[in-house]
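Researcher: Here's the sequence for the chain we discussed earlier.
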Amino acid sequence: MNTEEKTPLGRRILREVLSWFWVLVAFLLIHGTLMQARVIPSGSMERTLMVGDHLLVSRFGYDAGVPFTGWHLRLWREPRRQQVVIFRAPIPGSPDYVKRLIGLPGDRLEIRDGAAWINGRRLAEPYLDAPMDPREHFGPVTVPAQSYFVMGDNRANSYDSRYWGFVPRASLVGTPLVIYMSIDAPDDAWQPGQIRERVYAYANALLHPRRVRWNRLFETF
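Model: Thanks. This is the structure I predict for it:
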């Protein structure tokens, strides 16, 4: 008779429950404080991020929270200028936004002829998806304390701080680490709640590997 058979049933059940308990604790710790996965649903960050890019996001040092709840705790790290950041959307009920941080607290920011100027100096932005619009003017504004000014790299197709204002520091979730998958599929597949379309996109990628943007896999930030 082996040892497993000698162990009382109640103790085996307790051991199994404890095993799954620690798996749950590990999931909550990783998902709530270290790392999360995200899918890009819109073209506001093209070419840096494409619709259908799947990201691993680092929350380490920026934000801690309890998964599936609204509870969050701000941590110690501060983002850098021109860093891509993920933050809770300014519109309640919307998924998190991904934008590039342009203005830091205390900065005097202005857009002249489509170009961003910070404290009187033009900001070099080699990542932009298209030439700047010479008709665009904004500001000047001063970024408040504990706040940030963000914009998308695809400026003509980005709903960002130019329209809804500053991002509070407490809304920051983290920064992208790596693209682990990128699938060319209809934009609707990556919208919240579109389960059937998303399953179809994954199945289509399995059957037709050319739908995977292989050259984008494992790009880091």
